[in-house]
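Please check this:
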Amino acid sequence: MIHPWLAPLWRQVVQGESRRAHALLLSGAPGQGKRDFAESYAARVLCAQPNATGEACGECEGCRLRMSGNHPDLIRVVPEAELPEEQQSSGKTKPSTQIVVDQIRALRDKLGVTAHQNGTRVVLIDPAEAMNTNTANALLKLLEEPPPETLFLLISSAPRRLLPTIRSRCQQWFFPRPDANASSAWLQESIGEGGAALLALAGGMPLAAQRIADMQGHELRRRLIKDLLGMPPNDPVMVAGDWDAWLRSKNATDAGFDLPMLIDWVHRWVWDLGALALGANARFFPDCADQMQAVVARADERALVDCYNALVQIHRAASHPLNFRLVLEDLLMRYAKAVRPAQVRAQPAR
């Protein structure tokens, strides 16, 4: 299925198929549907009779094999952490979030034999930026001397993290920002009321907004806003303790709401405060603009900028924190310092 905001790009890719390279790099911001697009294109390549819009027919032998998960010419290379639990190794260590070099070596061995069906094999690599240097160099050899009748589909939300030599050997397709009207209409049909607030929080990315909705994002968002607007007078250290318990709760764990996502949302909140301070519009929390204006009126603009920059650094280390509680205290104390009233800031330290 091609999402409505990707239909123009789909037509371009299909119509330009006669000039298709042996490797395509599909890049763009996360939450747009790049993986769905790549899966649809792989289905088209493996289909014997694509329909009028260029999508797979869903009826031929190739389509039936693909839909049953048994097509021998469709090879997916993803980090072990993204595989179903029954396909992960049974070791004590956590599954890797990277694509490791052994996966590329196994891929090379698979491509050493001929295709099983119509002569075209599709290799889907997602996310391509999950390859370290050794893995990327191993893939580069395959791209430089591609096996016959093989199409590589590389998906990336951060193409600049790929080796320049890999990018240069791919035909690149950039996914533009989704059309706002098409995204809103799709989200309204998908999750119903309240989609606009989640779409804004997700930066206009409809699939990212749907994922937030699936994790009870409305409730999470409401609590975040309530706690941030409550400082001051609420003590940031006390709030950090509450958030520590919040992140460790069963509801948050089951929903997949973790420290990196929480920090990301606070980061977006502070971005909006900074935008309002400069006379621009709130992007991620537009429905809270009036309440945020009251915060901006008493905030120190320089401290807001310092808080924003500190959040950038904290966010980078959020996946591997040494101590959850200390990270949250640091984050919220910086925020409280930026938004407390001027007369409080002026009081000398005791």
